[in-house]
Specification:
2 domains; Rossmann fold; alpha/beta; 6-stranded mixed sheet; homodimer; Nitrilase/N-carbamoyl-D-aminoacid amidohydrolase; 19 helices
């Protein structure tokens, strides 16, 4: 029996297009058992679209079409929402010879982290085994595989193989933690494991694919490329499943970079943009974002805008130019001093008697945001926001200024990680001028400004933020990790005080275990 | 026995302050049984703060303090998060004579609409009865009372009274639907019902209080004022509970207006602002928002800014001035033509060869947003956003322009409702010039512009939006309600296309059954 693992990249809500995509894969898979990921037909997560009667009808129509396709000698396991008696299930259908032979309903519904499955789905309550060409598969959906309680009831003596379909989002530890779990599972039940995952970007979530097959000893015998749509097929036989192949190794920085590129590309393309623009400041954040944008859609779709003021160093302008040249990206240089002066003049009366302060820095940043949005409107081009996670955490950014934009590729990357990624990019092809990487970080919104005027150095700030954001550590716990108590308190207060800014920030690619997005639900009004 | 229903207005996360607030009520309630609402000690909803070890410690400390207070002859039912063996429960503690006598754990955890309780809490699994001075109370928390399955197991022959503590947010049907349910419940078990609810604003949610007591015939004998912190006490005896009093009636528009005022006041004050500002355009949205702001914190804390351009009619400037005069609000008039011209000049080269379009309208709107944010920064004053629900739905608003601000009081009010509210405000005291109410709606961003140039009239648009947003109706269903199919499709497409704008909008007061906030979870990237 040939089994085909299909790493699908669906578009959330576009049932017809997803159905066509599935049919294309089926057409190339004659005689095979094709396994599609969790909610492949609707895309994951469909969120409140699930409540619409329209989507139910479209899913039902698409399922009928797919049923007919299986008369042509292909069978499939299809992840799809399944509506029954006013309830919605997260289901896997086994479709064979023109009929839905089995319906498995996900039993363990995650309702933590980025997941809200109990908002939408009812729980299934029984294991399902499908017998395809004499092989007895135990069917599971994602969280079922992780849930000890569910997993222990999911196979019997007659089971030949564990088959898990997934919509498992990427973070920088996820591929490894899935592998560790799957090896444990294979060994504890002495059964091979087939693991099929979605691929593609959906708002903040990136599905990395990374589908695989393990034999009963937990050895990896098939592995699909991460971050790429496609399929891998193999001959299911006990002999084959015992032969171990070498694993493809990727380092973590490379994985993260690929996640950022795919997430950015899918946001751009799935939202029907053909071009993007961004503000290029001569700093490292915009330099990295530009590199990602070019890798996502090609330099010809990318436009960079340098907007110098009286506080912008000539070094910044030179570096922006040389980066645009190296990448062959169109660069516009638009000076903003005139506009700054006119605002000064316009606000002179109302600000009379007040000193200059952060207000004027914000005006400068917002003028740039306004110009970028004007170009975005005029040229129907998506504005990419270049802010990183460190500044998003402590509010070192201007709402409607440098935070303006439709998508923020490096929103979940700490400044420390931004440096690592920039060095990685340069190790492939030297496109970011060294000076950009080596100069001291500055917002250049006031004379001789440095990030460290307002913030602890990033090698102190970033680990504190990680302990707080990703590990929910208290002040005491962070202090015990070797950080100055007052610094910790100052940093955490900044995080709390800036919730209102994050609430108005554009989405970005989630690559850590906790990003500022669906998995960060804090009140703005809070006395904590 | 005297029972005291305490409509508390806590601050989410500020356990110490909430504890003090509770103690103040206890001090005034000697000898009474004091009933506090759901999660009174933490505020509702505490969201991801619940995961922090710090909050657990603070709650435990506060509970100890409150325990000691009950040695002084007062008893209490306290809504609080309760931590036990790594789990968190939404609990009601009965504290009497220095001890926690009973712990009731909420059994029905809502995970729909604005609620995410399954993300945080574990389910309790048994009813609790407390015997206080010989009276046997069946204890319930909010959703338990609505859940037929739970309710039916919540009383016995020995029960004398149903006691429900609540964190039930307001919408324009909510007070009535609670009353209808409570009457049904009282009658079906032939028991009196004590219903205590939180009061106050928390980001988008408004808790209206509206606590009450019904006798066993479902007659209302006590009713607390909606939207006001405070307490009502009564003598618990069978005689007393049979005596029906007249209900205080409020009309719906008055309730909604009070919800908007309370929500705005609490957002301002709980976030430690002492003043607000807003753009006053001469249109009805900003006129209503100004009235709400003045009722929320007093005219002396409110500043209005009129920013005329070459497209602003003299009528708008006059009406803004007369409204500011009537309300005695400081008005700044800041012309923006110079800044508009400078931007035109700055962008001349890059826009060379392109026609004027919506870009220039957006620039105008964003210049106003920039100026308002500059005043907000300089004077540490919260910027109120003046947009309504109709424009939020169809994207008839400029991101970072008129959408800029920290809080949007009328974000959940359709344009139709805005008119009704404006007339209500004027019926109390004439503060909105009639011309503002009567003129045709216009954004005044281009010559002779009218809202109807881009949108259907509001008496068509608003009911379509309500059917779609609040009732999840399909195109077919809306058409059956008497609307032109093409108009419906056009409107719904606008709603879908503008998800990205709403994602970056400030929070506002939820007053309908579905606002654009926690209860509107749609993907931005969507092919639906």
């Amino acid at each position: 029996m040939r089994v085909n693992l299909i790493q699908l990249n669906p578009i959330v809500g576009n049932i017809e297009k997803n159905c066509d995509l599935i049919i294309r894969h089926l057409a190339a898979s004659k005689g095979q058992l094709c396994i599609f990921p969790e909610l492949a037909l609707s895309g994951y997560p469909p969120e409140d679209l699930l409540f619409h009667s329209g989507i139910q009808k479209r899913i039902s129509r698409a399922t009928d079409i797919l049923k007919n396709k299986t008369r042509e000698g292909v069978s499939l396991i299809l992840g799809t929402p399944y509506y029954e008696e006013g309830k919605i299930f997260n289901a896997a259908l086994y479709i064979h010879d023109g009929k839905i032979e089995s319906i498995y309903k996900k039993r363990s519904l995650p309702n933590y982290s980025v997941f809200d499955e109990k908002r939408y789905f009812s729980e299934g309550n029984e294991p399902i085994f499908i017998n395809h060409e004499g092989v007895n598969f135990a069917l599971l959906i994602c969280e079922d595989f992780w849930d000890d309680n569910i997993f222990s009831k999911s196979f019997s003596e007659k089971t030949d193989c564990i088959l898990v379909i997934n919509g498992s989002p990427f973070d920088y530890n996820k591929i490894e933690s899935r592998r560790v779990l799957a090896i444990k599972r294979a060994k504890e039940c002495q059964l091979p494991v087939i693991y099929v995952n979605l691929v593609g970007g959906q708002d903040e979530l990136i599905f990395d694919g990374s589908s695989f097959v393990l034999n009963a000893d937990g050895e990896e015998i098939i592995k699909a490329k991460p971050f790429e749509e496609g399929s891998v097929s193999f001959e299911f036989s006990s002999q084959n499943l015992c032969k171990a192949e070498k694993r493809l190794e990727s380092n973590n920085i490379e994985l993260i970079y690929n996640a950022l590129v795919l997430g950015t590309r899918d946001y751009i393309q799935k939202n029907n943009f053909s071009s993007v623009l961004l503000g290029l400041s001569g700093g490292i954040d915009s330099a990295l974002t530009l590199a990602i944008a070019c890798d996502a859609i090609g330099a010809e779709g990318v436009r960079a805008v340098m907007m110098p003021s009286m506080f912008t160093s000539s070094m910044s302008v030179e570096d922006a130019k040389s980066q645009a040249d190296l990448l062959r990206v169109q660069l516009d240089v638009i000076g903003i001093s005139d506009v700054m002066n006119t605002f000064d003049h316009t606000l002179r009366d109302v600000f009379h008697g007040y000193e200059k302060d952060v207000t004027e820095e914000n005006i400068q940043s917002r003028i740039r945001g306004l110009i970028l949005m004007a170009l975005s409107n005029k040229f129907d081009s998506l504005l990419l926001t270049t802010g990183n996670k460190s500044e998003m955490a402590v509010g070192y950014s201007t709402l409607y200024g440098d935070m303006a934009g439709g998508f923020a590729p490096i929103k979940d990357c700490s400044k420390t990680l931004v440096y690592e990624l920039a060095r990685y990019v340069n190790s492939i092809k030297s496109i970011i001028p060294n000076r950009v990487i080596e100069r001291e970080p500055t917002a250049e919104l006031a004379p001789d400004q440095k990030d460290t005027d307002s913030l602890p150095p990033y090698d102190v700030l970033d680990p504190i933020l990680e302990l707080f954001i990703e590990h929910d550590c208290s002040v005491d716990q962070i202090e015990k990790n070797g950080f100055d108590r007052n610094t910790v308190i100052k940093v955490l207060n900044l995080v709390k005080r800036n919730e209102y800014k994050r609430r108005q920030a554009p989405p970005g690619v989630k690559i850590t275990s906790r990003a500022f997005g669906k998995d960060w639900r804090y009140p703005i009004t809070s006395g904590y």
